[in-house]
């Protein structure tokens, strides 16, 4: 039993979060046809300011939504004055999107995917962004990207479509990086050209549009002739190195672990059974529909969960499924099957990144700002491979950044910083944990190079000396 003093502390820390956590139903919301909420709309979305003392699924969901609010503080670009910024490599997850799955026999949330400058969430460059995108040239994109819309524009969102929230999230990301890397550190020359940038995205409209929103915040009113987005067919960004049988075996074992964990969770099965009765379908069919994806959209957009004549899906259902997700992530780290998948899945893109950093360290000016517009299934393996075990699952518009620095006092020496959502996590990576004891401000670049070229394979517990050998080793 929680005593009175503890209750008061919890209330002081996070009154609104506690309120949302204990609410059984989301407060009903009526939405006008143009997508603007009526005056009767009430908020259930507290600002996640203080982390609760115990794991709270509502708090974690709020962090995942990443609703744009006040400008965030960040640690990008921080270094002693005698260090010079040489190159920056940015990995992003696309911004807030409409669900990829629908809960059967329920009404999907009515989210407006047109961009309206005076509607929340707001960004001062939103209107200019739409105007600039309307002038975009198909020649700026590798096939098949030129067939994709450059910004969301549907009165009712389509499956997987980027929302206005998603666009604003990345306009903010881009503006933040502009203030740090261009205004403060002058990373790009004023007469920058196509050669200075490397831009790559998967073939989904939400990733292309997210990349363009960040780029517009970073380089407002950029010259379309200087922009070229490359297409990446794989969510792992593995280019020509995607065939890896051992990686797939790790993934199969990881999926088996997920399945067994779910079977052990009787509360989760009960909740799925309740929800299946509400929508009048078999439990197995509901589970296959991945209801949490749609429920997160309702939650992030402050729209009540769906109801049928049999009842309503409610906050308790949401909390149980979200809690299971968090427990699954915790066991995933402990069992380390996912780590094997992640090391092999992330190696190609990390290898490409250190190659670009090596060229920049040699003084070459090509591709000194790199942007990969990607997915949660892109960032998650990279985070795991780097040894960032405490990193949260990539939220909407998450950003992971690699910075390369040169010591002006020792020009031949270069260092790296790794930042996740603005937080410096360099000394939490497996390749730089030991270096923290040296009390130096950054990690030697050679640590990262050695990790990618050698230590990643050793972490698999094999004697493989190359990515190909690790992917094709016998007896796994």
Automatic annotation (TrEMBL):
It is a single-pass type II membrane protein. Keywords: Glycoprotein, Golgi apparatus, Hydrolase, Membrane, Signal-anchor, Transmembrane, Transmembrane helix. SUPFAM superfamilies: Phosphoglycerate mutase-like. InterPro entries: His_Pase_clade-2, His_PPase_superfam, Histidine_acid_phosphatase. One of its GO terms (molecular function) is phosphatase activity. It is found in: Golgi apparatus membrane. It catalyses: 3-O-[beta-D-GlcA-(1->3)-beta-D-Gal-(1->3)-beta-D-Gal-(1->4)-beta-D-2-O-P-Xyl]-L-seryl-[protein] + H2O = 3-O-(beta-D-GlcA-(1->3)-beta-D-Gal-(1->3)-beta-D-Gal-(1->4)-beta-D-Xyl)-L-seryl-[protein] + phosphate. Pfam families: His_Phos_2. One of its GO terms (biological process) is chondroitin sulfate proteoglycan biosynthetic process. Responsible for the 2-O-dephosphorylation of xylose in the glycosaminoglycan-protein linkage region of proteoglycans thereby regulating the amount of mature glycosaminoglycan (GAG) chains. Sulfated glycosaminoglycans (GAGs), including heparan sulfate and chondroitin sulfate, are synthesized on the so-called common GAG-protein linkage region (GlcUAbeta1-3Galbeta1-3Galbeta1-4Xylbeta1-O-Ser) of core proteins, which is formed by the stepwise addition of monosaccharide residues by the respective specific glycosyltransferases. Interacts with B3GAT3; the interaction increases the 2-phosphoxylose phosphatase activity of PXYLP1 during completion of linkage region formation in a B3GAT3-mediated manner. Belongs to the histidine acid phosphatase family. This is 2-phosphoxylose phosphatase 1. It comes from Loxodonta africana (African elephant). The lineage of its organism: Eukaryota, Metazoa, Chordata, Craniata, Vertebrata.
